Structures are given as structure tokens and as C-alpha cells.
Amino acid sequence: MGCIGSSQANNEGGVRKKKIRKPKPWAHTEPITRAQLVNMREEFWDTSPHYGGQREIWEALRAAAEADLKLAQTIVESAGVIVQNRDLTLCWDERGARYELPRYVLSEPTNLIREEGQ
């Protein structure tokens, strides 16, 4: 039986591709506003290439973090990202570089301050 395109059989080292999921609910150390969350995210993504790894992988991880789950799955697979934690908090590239994403770039905290009009 020819298993053409079997992702499990064709993965290097027999590593199975993990289906990604949203992070578990979490709370920031103190309640923050949406504007503060956006600033934290921008600061992280602006500095992420300085943590090591490849700029292209960081860009793919950002695109995945900002996409719905189905598109995020496609993005990480297309970029060759090896997902260790299904919520994308820990990933690797094919060269062995480590990519750690804080939960605040992946989802909103449970104690986000809802401002008027939101």
C-alpha cells in the first residue's frame, strides 16, 4: 500500500507532526488592558530574532500565532517548524534552533481589562 505523502513516514527522525491547539487559559501577573497586551506582543516580536534562530521561522511563528488554528497548522508545517508543545510555546527548526513563545503572544489572559466599547 503506497502511503504517498504520509507525514509520519516522511518526517525526519520519525517525529510525528503535532496538531496545534490554543493555549490553556492563563492569567497575567496583574490585570492588563488590550493596549498593554498589544504593546507586549509588539515588543516580543520586534526583539525575537535576537533570541537566536532564523528570522524566517520567527516570521512564520508570528503569522501562526495571529492566525486561526487551521491556518496556523499549515503555516508551521510549511515552514518546517517542529512543534514540541502543541500550544506553540516551544518549537524547533530543522537545524535544531529553539523557539520559545510566551503565552501572551498566543492568547489573551483571563484577567484582560475589558475597556468600554469592547
TrEMBL record:
Pfam families: UBD (PF16455). Residues 1-27 are annotated as: Disordered. Residues 1-11 have a biased composition (Polar residues). Residues 16-25 have a biased composition (Basic residues). Residues 17-115 form the DC-UbP/UBTD2 N-terminal domain. PANTHER family: UBIQUITIN DOMAIN CONTAINING 1 PROTEIN-RELATED. This is DC-UbP/UBTD2 N-terminal domain-containing protein. It comes from Capsella rubella.
